[in-house]
Amino acid sequence: MQSRKDMDPFNAIILAIFFPFVAALFVPFIEKGIKHRIGWFSAAIALISFILIGQVTHTVAEGHAIKQSITWLPSAGIEFGIYADGLSMMIGFIASGIGFIIMGYSNSYMSHKEDLPRYYKYLLLFMGSMIGMVFSSNLIQLFIFWELTSITSFMLIGYWRNKPASIYGATKSLLITVGGGLFMLAGFILLHSITGTFDIPTILQNPEIVQNLKVHPLFLITLILIVIGASAKSAQGPFYIWLPNAMEAPTPVSAFLHSATMVKAGIYLIARMHPIFSGTDAWFILVGGIGIFTMLLAGFLAFRQTDIKAILAYSTISQLAYMMTMYGYTSYHEPGIGVAAATFHLLNHAIFKACLFLVAGIVAHETATRDIRKLGGLRKEMPITFIIASIAALAMAGVPPLNGFLSKEMFYETSLEMGHILGGPFEVLIPAIAVMGGVFTFAYSIKLIDGIFLGKRQDHHLPQHVHEAPLTMLIPAAFLAVLVIFIGISPSTAVYYIIKPATAGILLEEVHLHVALWHGFTTSLMMTIATFLIGIAVYTKYDNIAAWQNRTNERIPWFSMNYVYDKIVDGAKSRAGDFAGCFQPGTIKTYINAMLLLFVILGTIPALMVAATLIPDNLNFNVPAYEVLILGLMIIAAIASAVLKKYLHAIIALSAVGYLVSLVFIYLKAPDLAMTQILVETLTTIIFLLVIVRVPQIFREKISRTTMAKDLVIASAVSLTVLILLLNATHEIVYPLESLSYYFVEKSLPLAGGHNIVNVIIVDFRGYDTLGEISVLCLAALGTYNLISSRGDKQ
User: Fold this and answer.
1) pLDDT band for position 139 (50/70/90)?
2) Residue 749 sits in which domain range?
3) Is there a single domain that holds both residue 364 and residue 499?
4) Are the beta carbons of 343 and 503 closer than 8 angstroms?
5) Are 770 and 685 in a shared domain?
6) How far apart are CA 363 and CA 389, in angstroms?
7) SS3 state of residue 71
8) Closest C-alpha among 135, 132, 11, 138 to residue 79
9) What is the pTM of this model?
């Protein structure tokens, strides 16, 4: 690897993005050689991406954002570009750094009997998608990587395919996050229509564009659509319901995706869009309002959870809401009130929450349970895990001198400032809400320590002998715990190299941050003390609150977003059946006949109205003998396919029609079309023959003479209509007729760069149509594969 001076920043970021993608392709082959040690190979890939991102740290830390692009879709004004500033660098470091730790941890957590190539392949693909997303310099590129993170997350959540809960959680996450992504894409398209560009730096760095956007009539709907996408990804507002079910994934996946990286994607989008939309009432109401609501709701609902990963899931939702709230704090004169605090908490949360998930994995690995009601008293048998868990949980609770205390203090300070700006009752209400969120966080953080390690050992639920996990599981968690302490005691390094550049990247101006453990007896410190005292009081009623929530949920189960989601998804099949029964009650043949009749009407009426005669007088009957022979054989083969009684004979006759068409193409000097026709005809014939050998060979259905006569009339009418249209189309049914072929001949080279006109038409001029056809075929193939796979081996 070259030194920092020699490594081009653009190349370094490109390698950091695509190296995991390339490595993922080779994981199944490398695993055959190194077996279960494939996890170390994947960890090495993550480490390389981390180092590559580190190549540009010095440049970005000095305040120089890196922007470079290459031509991608010039007709749409879209380039594949890299935009590396402090914000993208921070998320990139988190994705690759935590990825390295998680993949190393997985070497001991994952059983050697598992499908390890599939596991590590999807982890690498996810990591590459996440890094690609945060370094994207245009909105379309960001959207593509955004959806790739959703797809790879779906694969990882549903890793255990034989568990219904795992499939349910994966499906729910996919529907919500991908659905939210489509709303976000609509917002991006509106943003482009307003600003005239998809390029993110161009929008960010042009005050005139931003100012025009804020007074545009489409400003609010654009903001709403983008916030929906961000909220769905980061499990905020009503979209929070997917994250608890995603805990069915292997615990390292939860630590990587659902605490440190994927759920941060929505927060990243909010931070990236901050300079564009902040400083407005709409931004504060939407972003800040969703954050405040979710912070209180998720913190409160965490009380009734009994699975330690579920508690961590709701705590993650709540902590993400802290960031949403702080990024939402804004005013016209001070648009970035909470940006520094939110950015610092984003880093801190990634560290202590990943640590807590690793601890949860250790506990589940050694005790074979995640039910906190069956745990307790493990501090003597797992003292190292107890210490690590206590450090991380207390950091989440905001206890000094840990990193969570520093960002929690900044949260309280910005809440006081926001309340003061709003004035009136908000001067008390906003800080009070912040304290209430802190109280809930304190309570469920203490519950994790108390419920797992303190109290009496549940001998009838736990194995007789419980011991510490292997070092390969303890060291990653211990390393994160050390980071929690280091950043808490000495925050200057993290602030200077990570938080300050990230904050400057969001605010687009130089920032001065001073973060320290002690600032004197400030109001924010009094709020922290109040949080601890109220939190202790609330914790004494923890079980009572949980029991009340359970009783309420039993009495009014419909008062839940999960209930609404299940009703919508579970009822989709029956509602689709009802819809089809109402609007499509007949047979397929009825609909085909109706469409053919409509075609005859729509084709014949214009011909009768416009054409002088249905059959032109100047037809050319001087046809070469070769064409007459081929056309005659085609007619004979077509008739044979309709009248032969055996399927095999009919299929051969039908294939003969296709091969004869290829001869026509050859005669007309179109070898590429002939080759395509031959390939398609051969493949279709083979598929037909593979299917037909499994059914009776003789056509047994009895067709009445009435039905036969009706079908003959319809077929004749359609054939005659097509004949009339083709004859008149070549004789200028609409005068003057200008053939489209001239356009394609003239434009194929300058517009598409191709000499093969047919290929250019298929790939470029009607590229979207071809893409649609390919997509339909892929979906049909996937559906067929799933139907076959669902039958079981014996069937």
Assistant:
1) very high
2) 743-795
3) yes
4) yes
5) no
6) 10
7) strand
8) 138
9) 0.82
Q: Are 234 and 346 in contact (CB under 8 A)?
A: no
Residue 33 lies in a domain: no
Q: Is residue 409 part of a domain?
A: yes
**CA-CA distance, 566 to 408, in Å (whole number)?**
36
Q: Quick one: 532 and 628 in the same domain? A: no
One domain for residues 752 and 728: no
Nearest Cα neighbor of 572 from 171, 170, 183, 152 is: 171
Q: Residue 569 falls within a domain, yes or no?
A: no
What are the pLDDT digits (tens) for 358-388?
999 999 888 888 889 888 888 888 999 999 9
Structure confidence at residue 6 (pLDDT): 54
List of residues 6+ apart from 715 with CB closer than 8 A: none
Label residues 605-625 b or e (16+ Cβ within 10 Å = b): eebeeebeeeebeeeeeeeee
Identify the CA nearest to 177 among candidates 123, 235, 113, 220. 235
Q: 499 in a domain, yes or no?
A: yes
Please check whether residues 729 and 747 belong to one and the same domain. Answer: no
| Residue 436 to residue 65: CA distance in whole angstroms | 38
Please state the rounded mean pLDDT for residues 657-666. 90
User: What backbone torsions phi and psi does residue 81 show, to the nearest 5 degrees?
Assistant: -130, 160
Same domain for 470 and 350, yes or no, is: yes
Q: What are the DSSP calls for 185-211, one per residue?
A: HHHHHHHHHHHS--BHHHHHT-HHHHH
Q: Is the pLDDT of residue 479 over 90?
A: yes
> In terms of domains, do 698 and 772 share one?
no
CATH of the domain at 704: 1.20.120
> In this predicted structure, what is the pLDDT of residue 436?
95
Please give the pLDDT value at position 2: 45
pLDDT tens readout for residues 715-773: 888 888 888 777 776 665 555 556 677 788 888 888 877 777 877 887 888 888 888 88
Last residue of a domain, one of 734, 767, 783: 734
Could you give the number of structural domains in the chain? Answer: 3
* Dihedral (CA of 428, 432, 433, 438) sign: positive
For residues 777 and 719, membership in a common domain is answered with no
Beta bridge partners of 78: 73
Looking at residue 545, its amino acid is I
311-354 pLDDT per residue, tens: 999 999 999 999 999 999 988 888 888 899 999 999 999 999 99
